[in-house]
């Protein structure tokens, strides 16, 4: 079977974790290939996500690498055994690849923690909000592509119906942005209040007057894996979404979220704060 041309972020992550296990064992790919009865290129393709790996081979490698964490091994096996295509594949070729990877990441998440400064989190945006933001950001986008991207953004929201824990920290600046005008903005704020009624959704607000908040300006989404080793941090850049899974970096982003959360109002006070802003529109 030829190598995958564009592996998904999840396929790349599986390969990266196998590479980390190999390196932790102090082994080089050449020796692993010889032990497994294959060639070095095959190991390289597996570790880059370009080739899949069978459960039998994965478990043999884990044993060879002296990995005795059964939860991690089982989680990697589940990733390797995935064959069904997710709903996001319907949008391949229409939305950016990073958006597809993000939807896949959210689908498999055990929890999601999000921090936004000037935007409402995508999973909590109303259709009118999405459309207004899209028209402003990409005024020349073909209408069919725009509608497809709007449908994709709304479809991502189904993750909330699966019970996945979703913790959101929003700065007051994002709540006061009049995207689409007062009517659309008010409906968006009311939608946040409605979403907060779900048992798995928690929304906290950082007001302008919050002490101890130095103004961390870029958004962050932290996605929990089935085991902490498989957590992922996602940040937006000028060239699209970037996915971060290096352990040291994940520690930094977890700590950053803790600091940001410490500056936010408690959930009930946050909802009252959102209601007051909505009443002002």
Q: How would you characterize the overall build of this protein?
A:
There is one protein chain. The relative contact order is 0.12. The chain is α/β, with parallel strands linked by helices. Helix 4 (55-64) runs antiparallel to helix 5 (70-81), helix 7 packs across helix 8 (143-155) and helix 10 runs antiparallel to helix 12. The mean pLDDT is 93. It is built from twelve helices and six strands. It has a six-stranded mixed beta sheet, sandwiched between helices.
Summarize the structure.
The protein has 281 residues and is of the alpha/beta class. Helices cover 49% and strands 12% of the residues.
Would you report the number of β strands?
Answer: 6
Radius of gyration: 21 Å
Q: Flag low-confidence runs.
A: none
Strand neighbour order, sheet with most strands: 3-2-1-4-5-6
First CA to last CA: what distance?
Answer: 59 Å
């Amino acid at each position: 079977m030829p190598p995958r041309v564009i592996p998904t972020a999840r396929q790349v992550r599986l390969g990266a974790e196998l590479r980390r296990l190999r390196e932790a064992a102090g082994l080089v790919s050449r020796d692993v290939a010889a032990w497994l009865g294959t060639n070095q290129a095959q190991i390289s393709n597996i570790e880059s996500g370009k080739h899949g790996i069978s459960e039998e081979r994965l478990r043999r490698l884990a044993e060879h690498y002296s990995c005795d964490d059964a939860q991690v091994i089982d989680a990697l096996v589940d990733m390797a055994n995935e064959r069904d295509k997710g709903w996001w594949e319907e949008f391949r070729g229409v939305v950016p690849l990073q958006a597809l990877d993000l939807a896949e990441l959210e689908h498999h998440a055990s929890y999601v923690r999000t921090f936004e400064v000037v935007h409402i989190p995508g999973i909590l945006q109303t259709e009118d909000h999405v459309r207004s933001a899209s028209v402003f950001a990409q005024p020349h986008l073909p209408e069919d592509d725009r509608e497809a991207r709007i449908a994709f953004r709304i479809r991502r929201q189904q993750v909330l119906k699966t019970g996945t824990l979703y913790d959101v920290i929003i700065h007051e600046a994002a709540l006061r942005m009049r995207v689409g005008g007062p009517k659309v903005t008010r409906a968006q704020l009311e939608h946040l209040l409605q979403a907060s009624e779900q048992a798995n959704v928690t929304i906290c607000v950082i007001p302008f007057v919050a002490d101890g908040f130095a103004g961390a300006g870029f958004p962050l989404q932290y996605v929990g894996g089935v085991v902490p080793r498989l957590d992922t941090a996602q940040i937006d850049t000028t060239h699209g979404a970037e996915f971060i899974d290096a352990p040291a970096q994940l520690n930094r982003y977890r700590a950053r979220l803790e600091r940001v959360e410490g500056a936010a109002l408690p959930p009930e006070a946050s909802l009252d704060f959102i209601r007051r802003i909505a009443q002002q529109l």
